Amino acid sequence: MNKGIKTGLALVLAIVSVVLVYLTYKSISGPVEFDKEQAKRERVLQAKLKKIVSFQKAYEERYGHFGSREDLMMFLMQDSVFSIKSEGEYTSEMREDGKSEDLLAYKGNKLYKHGKGMPVAEIIAKGFLVRDTTWSPASILLENESVEEAFTVPAFGKTTASLISVDTASIQQIVGLDTVQSSVFSAQVPCEVYLADLEENRLRDKISLLKERRDGKGYPGLKIGSLKEIKETGNWE
After folding, report:
1. Which of 96, 145, 213, 226 would disulfide-bridge 149, Cβ 3.0–4.6 Å?
2. Domain boundaries, the chain
3. Residue 97 to residues 41, 104, 111, 116: CA-CA distances in angstroms?
4. What is the three-class DSSP state of 155?
5. pLDDT tens digits along 33-79
6. Which of these, 184, 205, 203, lies nearest to 41 by C-alpha position?
7. pTM of the model
């Protein structure tokens, strides 16, 4: 074998070695990079979905039920929200802890001496408890976003921007001896939307794994709330 052939073979082997090293590296680093990018994008979307929960709570407090995406957008652009500041024994903290005004004049309470047996309205009228209702534009819930941005899935990488889906429904609940209708909602983004530009086989595997969760009823993406039960948490929590 002459020197030229030997040199050629050595060059081919060197190229093959480089290709094999590269393919080995990609087989290891590819899934890692995919998972890192997925986690980064999902953090953004999880924050958006949690924000939609806050919109729904404000909307329900105003209208007694949850709203569609269009309802929420109109609400945020044109409506108002209120907050109640309490001074006296019944404080905002007590309200947040779920303590009822009906228990204001219980023994041991600072109002017991003056308010025992007294209706809440009379306690307030006598100045033992001060409540102040303040109305503000619902747009304050958006913080630094526009209405459109709040409901938009950003264009990650080479993906296309799209809207977050918001659905509502009414379900029956047993409360004591009664059956009542309860408003429920869900907001979701399929992973094939926000991961569309990433490695196809890896994405297909991810979708299959997500669908297998919850006995084959898992949602292949990010979802918060439910149309079948009263729930305000996300499927990542």
Report:
1. 145
2. 29-65+146-237, 80-139
3. 34, 14, 19, 22
4. coil
5. 999 999 999 999 999 999 999 999 999 999 999 999 999 999 999 99
6. 203
7. 0.71
For residue 60, the number of C-alpha atoms closer than 13 Å in the C-beta half-sphere is 16
64 CB-near residues (< 8 Å, 6+ apart):
183
> Read out DSSP for the chain?
--HHHHHHHHHHHHHHHHHHHHHHHHHHHHHHHHHHHHHHHHHHHHHHHHHHHHHHHHHHHHHSS---HHHHHHHHHH-EEEEEEEEESS-HHHHHTT--GGGTT-TTSTTHHHHTT--HHHHHHTTSEEEEEEEEEGGGGGTTS-HHHHTEE---TT---EEPEEEEEEEEEEETTEEEEEEEEEEEEEHHHHTTTS-HHHHHHHHHHHHHHHHHT--SEEEEE-SSS---SBTT-
